[in-house]
Specification:
The complex is a heterotrimer of chains A (457), B (996) and C (90).
Chain A: H1 8-11, H2 17-29, H3 46-54, E1 72-78, H4 82-95, E2 100-103, E3 119-120, H5 130-141, H6 143-147, E4 158-162, H7 165-180, E5 186-189, H8 190-196, E6 211-215, E7 219-220, H9 223-236, E8 240-242, E9 247-253, E10 256-262, E11 267-274, H10 280-286, E12 293-305, E13 313-315, E14 322-325, E15 330-341, H11 349-362, E16 370-382, E17 388-391, E18 397-401, H12 407-424, H13 438-441
Parallel strand pairs in A: 1-2, 1-11, 2-8, 4-13, 11-18
Antiparallel strand pairs in A: 3-7, 4-6, 5-6, 9-10, 10-11, 12-15, 12-16, 13-14, 14-15, 17-18
Chain B: E1 15-24, E2 27-33, H1 37-43, E3 50-51, E4 58-59, E5 72-75, E6 82-86, E7 96-99, H2 114-117, H3 126-129, H4 137-149, E8 164-176, H5 180-191, E9 196-199, E10 215-216, E11 219-220, H6 221-234, E12 238-241, E13 244-252, E14 258-264, E15 280-292, E16 296-298, E17 311-313, H7 314-322, E18 331-336, H8 342-350, E19 354-360, H9 367-376, E20 379-382, E21 384-390, E22 397-402, E23 405-409, E24 413-417, E25 420-422, H10 425-428, E26 435-437, E27 442-444, E28 452-454, H11 464-481, E29 515-517, E30 522-523, H12 524-532, H13 538-545, H14 558-569, H15 573-576, E31 588-589, H16 590-594, H17 611-615, E32 621-624, E33 627-630, H18 641-654, E34 657-660, E35 665-670, H19 674-681, E36 693-700, E37 706-716, E38 719-724, H20 729-743, E39 750-753, E40 758-764, H21 768-776, E41 792-797, E42 800-805, E43 814-820, H22 824-836, E44 841-842, H23 845-854, H24 893-896, E45 901-908, E46 920-923, E47 935-943, E48 948-956, E49 965-969, E50 977-982
Parallel strand pairs in B: 1-7, 8-9, 8-15, 9-12, 15-28, 17-24, 18-19, 18-24, 19-20, 34-44
Antiparallel strand pairs in B: 1-2, 3-4, 5-6, 5-7, 10-11, 13-14, 14-15, 16-25, 21-22, 22-23, 26-27, 29-30, 32-33, 34-40, 35-38, 35-39, 36-37, 37-38, 40-43, 41-42, 42-43, 45-48, 45-50, 46-49, 47-48, 49-50
Helix pairs in contact in B: 5-6, 5-11, 7-8, 8-9, 12-14, 18-23, 21-22
Chain C: E1 2-5, E2 9-12, E3 17-21, H1 34-43, E4 51-57, E5 65-71, E6 77-82, H2 83-89
Antiparallel strand pairs in C: 1-2, 3-4, 4-5, 5-6
Classes of the chains: A alpha/beta (457), B alpha+beta (996), C alpha+beta (90).
């Protein structure tokens, strides 16, 4: 279902045609195959791979350049994660703005881009969210061809289980909203779920499975590859990706932000975009900004690698658990936030137990499969559980934040819309609701209905 | 007995009088008590145990411990199948069944091995560069192939039949590892009287003492360990936990006591768990001090064919010879970077196993070693490297390069020694970073977590003498910290005062594949490719090549890979850095983390006092949070739920019914300021409620949206009882405590949850008063004049206190009667008996729901956290005279927007048509887009009174649109229905029945 | 993580529920700019990386609201006291 990208042109920006138009030509004739001398990477394909095999893979160059920072750029994107790199890619590709630097304090993808459970979906309820995440899904569907990098977008389906009439009614409402925006959604009854996943606990469940809401186009993607693919594509268009370059301050002149102080010296820019997830409050503080955001740790887990065990993505409706299986064979799963503010990329045992209890509750055959590794990502939890893509109150600074634990699936659309905002100084049509002032006006986008309590979203 | 040729006739910790039989790939073998599966296989002459992840190369046994990357098998069968079990830690039991993994059709002949031929293409990250065309092929062709090829063992889809337990333990000193350092620490702290827990992942204590020919105070190391264990077990406050892996360090508290996660393998060494015993037990150990004495792991050397079966770690070879009495080879060679490998030469020789040669990378090995070799007739290759090992199903030849000269030797075993890596993982789980030690060319613990100390090899002190000294010192310090002053520090004489760890990472220019990560088939070439492509950070290297991501988490591979990257980039190893170790130290079964929280025991089940009675009258219960509530009470002959529920509704409205409402939250509120307190909680006023009256209240969150609703009764000047929804009971309690303790501590008010203390029943319908009069006799006058709607009273019934409220959810004349929970069963039976002559019936939550919808009362589907009081048609309740939580932010523009969806009723235009909750409102004929969305249906019910489906919904400008026709659009369930917008009060709009 | 409840002693994390920033002070509802002040108090956070005063609820214990000083970088607990006394002082 990768070809789906074409559908994009119908209900999103005409610009998005770029995503697909060049694809077949580039792939078939590898027009991007230009010598490394010109700074462009060799086009990836089975042919170039076989070719490389004969030369012992000696001619592959760096996937992205490693330049020293220039004194000034048109645009600086703070944060070399998926969102920052996607933003740079679309700035260069869609808006032709290539004098761009992405500043990363560590190695690219060292934040949440490399710490998530790789799930992609667009099964959102509220009008403020639904079109945005569907744009993201459409971009996912054309991503390999756009980036010439296999990000392993795999649409094996996302199934949200329900266990009560009230939960079913809520999913019906959500599924209907999805369908009204042309997003695929199916409501399954218990029998249909059983047909799909007979090994879920139907016999002895404390909260019996009554059915589920299925988005077949949902699935997973290879998170690190998304980062590397965007980095490679952006770099090949002239974007400077600068690792080990931590922003330590903002250069302010008058009311305006003119640049950033970094561990590699001051760098000036006309516009500065923040895409730093869990570090949002800290970077914003450099500009004297307080935000409706708390940083919370979300743990994720992988099991030992086993032969195909679970086809798609499933989420438990009566506890905190979701699961998928990576192409490498590991079960990738997670659950709820630990619940306390944290900048330490790790959590504690009660959450590990809670997640595994949820797993055993729906999938009792997990018992003997071993948990191999756990880690924590720092989520920029917003006050209504929805993101912010907006101008900051002070000129020159732009915000991309508040992704909560939805950041990975949003990567392409986040980059697409943030690039649009940076390039045109106006919000993209599907990101209009993501305003910073919505908390003051009350136009919150609260999918869960828990209010200004970030750890409950 | 098969394979006896591979067993020594004496020595080791196996019991040759107790043979155990087992199978591997269906073939029977036998080993001895004290064997691991790995030692039993080696003892049976089995060399090939598995196939590798990517190239499907035959693999044997590399190690003798939990770091094993190669020898992974499927243990047991059926629902108990355990994929990826390390044969080196699987304790042998009689009847053990095991299978090799990741091969087809057989281990000896595996078609997957074709991948080896494609290995020039299957380099690191090759899949990122291809499988992109045609796009549609990914899910359909490429990915299924990749998924089938990937993964190792096969997991069962059957529910795990075994049980798991969780347990807590508290101690002064937790000691991790029962090798020499750990034992010395435990003896010292234990003798001092400290509460000590000593854990070891092995099934015998002693660690390296069991694997080496070492002496302590003249006794054999293993014997000394036995005696130490015996003494420790004799100490009352010392607990020795074998087969227990401390897998994770977690955060501490103010006292410094830290929580550790540990897994005890209670029954894994048995064919089946003993009766009433779990398979495994998850321990949460809270320790004031912890001593890490987890030892060290030997490093392989990266050279051509280093993955061939028969190539083993040198110290592991010693373990198999000395502990298990196994002869891993007939004619062996040893490849080492320093002195340590030479121990294997002498141990093999002492066991009568031929050692053809020692290949020492050093130009000039110590003379003493050379003479020893001479004595044994072992050839010494100095300044030489092994560049290749041949023999896919067990090596038979190695190639040794000295300068430019290559020589071939025929051997069937090769021991390699590339130095040692301290097991420091637990020092980094809570944030510490390891430090590079030039002395042993390895990372050693850096800054330690508060309360932790390290002893022995885990800290880089590899020699036995140092291990004992450091262990004793650490034990004494920990005991002292726990308040046991001047602890005597024992001393022991040992046979080993130094151990060298000299790095030998990589032999370059090998003719064949040289493996860094054996399980994931990451070669030195892959590291070089990653370097060329810019994946140079150790974290990028790991993610790009999968180095160190296998089931061993890189214990034998990561540092070798980082060393190669360092060399390629001209940096030192500490400059390159290392990846972060994260819990668990070794993989832990998911079932163990869940414990008994599965199936029906996933969460507690809360039952009301009337549950036993309900059970006698229906089998239909529904989960309401953790509560179980009767959903309806079927009568014989009733076809379906709808018939039963409709009958219940009609009976209630025509005669009367009783419903258990005990699950609603009940909060007792007392104090001089109780009324003022409630005024700040609710949007309406409660300080003015007269004693003996009830008022319906609505509370907001501080952000101005509705939080919960319910009735609150005033029983006295300074005494209220609040009821909350079942779902929000705990949340509201927390909210009130916050308001009382944090926001307004100056108020004189006390609150307590009494939800479980009182059973409560609703009696609804025209006959409800008669029923109560019959039940209560003359205790109270229930006439309208004396006890009108919204009256309440405390009274006594047969010497038991009762609370009576005249409130109604159904819209009928109704009462709620509360009684201390222990009388709840008696009361419900008395109520039903008293009501029998009036035809009063029990009704469940469904009928309750139907009647509240008929009356337009809001419930969970409307109180969804995104609605305002005005949205629910309750805006008028908001008192302008006072402040309350949420009042100010409820005044934000978007919350006052007249376009907001507001509560309405809907009925299908075709009265026979069905409604579905979750349908969205669209103008008739409007395109089905989000832009045209005008709201949605929140709740629906079939109303037996109106003889048709009715619904509540939230509709933009709803109240002004009664009479309008809309489409209820529900593509995912039920399709579209044309509906008419009506008042949300469908039944008895004047409320006359209420006042009876 | 373990929290020393002043009333119950040091207990496991799992007994507690987290609310967040303890610096929240309910603004004067009658102030002219009350809505702005409430918005600020309810929605905006310093969200510091380092020592942080936060509110925890000992729901599985004494139901006490606690003011916990904790380092959000290291999870180190630096101090615990009842929230009530603080409130009374305020």
């Amino acid at each position: 279902m990768h070809g789906k990208g074409l559908a994009l042109s119908q209900n999103v920006l005409p610009l998005s045609l770029n995503v697909n138009h060049r694809r077949p030509r580039r792939l078939r004739y590898g027009l991007d195959c230009t010598p490394r001398a010109r700074g462009k990477p060799i086009h990836y394909s089975i042919f170039s791979l076989i070719g490389a095999a004969f030369s012992g893979h000696r001619h592959w160059g760096p996937a992205w350049r490693d330049p020293a920072p220039k004194p000034a750029y048109d645009v600086i994107v703070i944060g070399g994660g998926g969102h920052g790199l996607a933003t740079a890619h679309y700035l260069a590709k869609v808006h032709g703005i290539t004098n761009v630097a992405v500043l990363e304090k560590g190695w690219i993808g060292s934040g949440n881009a490399g710490r998530n459970t790789t799930i992609i979906r667009s099964n959102y309820l509220l009008p403020g969210n639904n079109p945005f995440y569907e744009l993201s899904m459409k971009l996912w569907e054309g991503l390999e061809q756009d980036l010439n990098y296999n990000t392993m977008v795999s649409q094996r389906g996302v199934l949200n289980l329900y266990h009560s009439d009230a939960q079913r009614d809520a999913y019906v409402r959500r599924g209907n909203a999805m369908r009204m925006h042309g997003v695929d959604a199916e409501l399954l009854d218990a029998a249909a779920v059983r047909g799909m996943l007979p090994y879920l606990d139907f016999a002895n469940a404390r909260f019996p499975i009554q059915g589920g809401l299925l988005q077949r186009r949902g699935g997973t993607a290879r998170h690190d590859a998304v980062v590397w693919g965007y980095a490679r594509a952006a770099s090949s268009r002239g974007v400077d990706i600068i690792q080990n370059c931590e922003v330590t301050g903002m250069i302010r002149e008058g009311g305006r932000i003119r640049g950033v102080e970094t561990t590699r010296g001051p760098i000036r820019a006309g516009k500065i975009g923040m895409a730093v997830a869990g570090s949002t409050s800290r970077v914003a503080a450099m500009a004297g900004l307080r935000l409706p955001i708390e940083s919370h740790v979300l743990q994720a887990f992988v099991s030992e690698s086993i032969k195909p065990f679970f086809p798609g993505v499933v989420t438990f409706g009566a506890g905190h658990f979701y699961l998928s299986q990576s192409d490498k064979g590991s079960l990738v799963f997670g659950g709820d936030l630990d619940g306390y503010n944290s900048y330490a990329q790790r959590g504690n045992l009660p959450t590990v137990e809670d997640v595994c209890e949820g797993g055993m509750a729906i999938l009792p055959s997990l018992g003997r499969i071993r948990l191999l590794r756990s880690w924590g990502g720092i989520m920029d939890m917003s006050m209504d559980g929805s993101p912010i893509i907006d101008r900051a109150p002070m000129q020159g600074l732009y915000l991309n934040a508040g992704w909560c634990y939805g950041g990975f699936k949003a990567t392409p659309a986040s980059g697409w819309c943030f690039a649009h905002l940076l390039a045109r100084d106006e919000p993209h049509e599907v990101a209009r609701a993501y305003r910073l002032d919505r908390f003051a006006t009350g136009r919150v986008i609260d999918e869960k209905g828990v209010g200004a309590q970030p750890n409950l979203h | 007995m098969s394979g006896s040729a591979h067993r020594l006739t004496e020595g080791g910790l196996i019991d040759r009088r107790k043979p155990l039989s087992f199978t591997f790939d269906g073939q029977s073998y036998s080993g001895f008590e004290g064997d691991t599966l790995a030692s039993a296989l080696l003892g049976s002459g089995v060399k090939v145990v598995g196939r590798s992840f990517k190239y499907h190369r035959p693999r044997g046994i590399l190690c003798a411990g939990s770091e094993e990357p190669n020898a992974l098998v499927e243990l047991r069968t059926g629902a108990r199948r355990e994929p990826n079990t390390r044969a080196t830690v699987a304790e042998l039991y009689d009847g053990l069944e095991s299978q090799s993994q990741n091969r087809w059709p057989s281990l000896a002949f595996d078609l997957g091995a074709v991948n080896s031929l494609l290995s020039p293409i299957f380099v690191a990250g090759f899949y990122y560069k291809t499988f992109m065309w045609p796009a549609a092929f990914w899910e359909k062709v490429y990915e299924p192939l990749i998924r089938r090829a990937a993964g190792l063992g096969i997991a069962s889809h059957e529910a795990d039949p075994d049980r798991y337990e969780k347990a807590h333990a508290f101690c002064d000193v937790l000691i991790i590892g029962a090798g020499p350092a750990g034992l010395a620490a435990a003896l010292t702290a234990g003798r001092a009287g400290a509460r000590v827990i000593l854990c070891d992942e092995d099934f015998v204590v002693g660690g390296r003492l069991n694997a080496e020919r070492l002496e302590i105070d003249g006794a054999g190391g293993a014997e000394w360990a036995r005696q130490a264990e015996a003494e420790l077990r004799s100490l009352a406050d010392v607990r020795v936990m074998r087969r227990t892996t401390v897998f994770g360090a977690y955060d501490a508290g103010l006292s410094g006591a830290r929580t550790f996660g540990a897994l005890e393998r209670v029954s894994d060494h048995l064919r089946l768990p003993a009766p009433h015993q779990p398979r495994q037990r998850l321990w949460k150990i809270v320790a004031a001090r912890v001593i890490l004495a987890a030892g060290a792991v030997e490093r392989p050397i990266v050279f051509g064919g280093n993955d061939r079966p028969g190539v083993m770690l040198a110290a592991s070879v010693r373990t198999y010879v000395n502990r298990f009495g196994v002869a891993p080879a007939r004619q062996a060679a040893v490849f080492t970077g320093g002195d340590d490998g030479w121990k294997t030469v002498s141990d093999l020789a002492a066991a009568g196993i031929g050692v053809a040669a020692v290949i020492d990378a050093r130009a000039e090995p110590p003379p003493a070693l050379l003479t020893a070799a001479q004595r044994l007739g072992t050839r010494v290759f100095a300044g030489a490297h092994v560049v290749d090992a041949r023999g896919s199903h067990g090596i038979h030849r190695i190639s040794v390069r000295t300068g430019s000269r290559i020589e071939h030797l025929d051997v069937d075993g090769l021991a390699m020694s590339g130095g040692w890596n301290p097991c420091a993982a637990l020092t980094t789980h809570v944030g510490g970073r390891p430090r590079w030690s030039e002395a042993i060319a390895a990372f050693v613990p850096g800054d330690l977590p508060a309360g932790m100390s390290v002893a022995g090899a885990a800290g880089g002190s590899l020699a036995l003498d140092a291990a004992l000294r450091e262990g004793a010192a650490a034990g004494a310090a920990a005991a002292a910290a726990a308040g046991f002053a001047d602890v005597p520090i024992p001393r022991w004489r040992t046979s080993e005062d130094s151990v060298s760890s000299r790095a030998l990472w990589h032999v370059s220019g090998c003719p064949s594949k040289a493996f860094v990560d054996l399980q994931h088939d990451v070669t030195d070439g892959d590291i070089a490719l990653a370097e060329r492509e810019g994946y140079r950070s150790v974290e990028l290297l790991k993610r790009y090549t999968t180095l160190g991501m296998a089931t061993d988490q890189g214990k034998t591979s990561s540092l070798n890979g980082h060393a190669i990257m360092a060399a390629l980039t001209g940096r030192s190893i500490p400059e390159v850095g290392t990846t972060t170790a994260r819990p668990p130290y070794t993989p832990v079964a998911i079932g163990a983390f869940a414990g008994h929280h599965r199936g029906k025991e996933f969460k507690p089940t809360r039952l009301t006092a009337g549950h036993a009675w309900a059970r006698q009258n229906t089998e239909v219960f529904v989960e309401a949070g953790q509560w179980l509530r009767a959903q309806w009470f079927p009568r014989p002959g009733e076809q379906d739920w709808l018939e039963s529920v409709s009958r219940e509704v009609k009976s209630v409205r025509s005669s009367g019914g009783v419903c258990d409402v005990s699950t609603l939250g009940k909060i007792d509120i007392q104090g001089a300021d109780a009324g003022a307190f409630l005024d700040r909680i609710y949007i309406n006023t409660f300080s003015t409620v007269p004693v003996g009256k009830v008022r319906y209240g609505l509370m907001l969150r501080e952000d101005g949206f509705v939080m919960d609703d319910g009735t609150t009764a005033r029983l006295g000047d300074a005494h209220y009882v609040m009821s909350t929804t079942t779902a929000n009971a705990a949340k509201v309690m927390q909210h009130l405590e916050h308001a009382r303790q944090v926001l307004w501590p100056e108020l004189d008010v006390q609150i307590v949850s009494v939800t479980e203390q009182w059973a409560q029943y609703a009696i609804a319908g025209p006959n409800s008063r008669r029923l109560l009069e019959r039940l209560l006799g003359g205790v109270i006058d229930l006439a309208n004049a004396a006890f009108p709607y919204l009256a309440c009273a405390e009274l006594e019934w047969q010497g038991v206190p009762l609370r009576l409220f005249r409130i109604s959810f159904s819209g009928e004349m109704a009462f709620e009667i509360a009684i201390p929970a222990r009388y709840g069963d008696a009361l419900i039976r008395a109520l039903m008996a008293a009501g029998r002559e009036f035809g009063v019936i029990p009704y469940g939550t469904e009928a309750l729901g139907v009647m509240r919808i008929e009356k337009g009362h809001v419930a969970g589907n409307e109180l969804n956290g995104t609605t305002t009081a005005a949205d629910l048609g309750l805006g008028r309740m908001l008192s302008k005279k006072k402040d309350c939580i949420g009042r100010v932010l409820a005044g934000r523009p978007a919350l006052l927007d007249p376009e907001r969806p507001t509560l309405v009723g809907v009925r299908p235009v075709d009265r026979k048509a069905r409604l579905y909750a979750g349908a969205h409102f669209l103008a008739v004929g409007a395109a089905t887009t989000l832009e045209n969305d005008q709201g949605y249906v929140t709740s629906v019910a079939y109303s037996p009174m109106l003889e048709g489906w009715i619904g509540l919904g939230l509709l933009a400008r709803g109240p002004s649109r009664h009479g309008e026709r809309l489409v209820a659009h529900s593509p995912v369930r039920g399709g579209d229905t044309e509906v008419e917008v009506v008042s949300p009060i469908f039944f008895d709009p004047e409320g006359t029945r209420l006042h009876g | 993580m373990r929290i020393r409840c002043p009333f119950c002693g040091e207990r496991d994390l799992s007994e507690f529920t987290y609310l967040g920033d303890a610096s929240f002070v309910r603004p004067d509802p009658d102030a002219a700019d009350a809505q702005q002040r409430f918005y600020d108090a309810v929605y905006l956070r310093d969200n510091p990386a380092g020592p942080f005063e936060e509110l925890w609820y000992h729901g599985s214990g004494c139901r006490g609201w606690l003011r916990v000083r904790r380092n959000t970088r290291t999870h180190e607990i630096l101090g615990v006291e009842p929230a009530r006394r603080q409130g009374a002082d305020a």
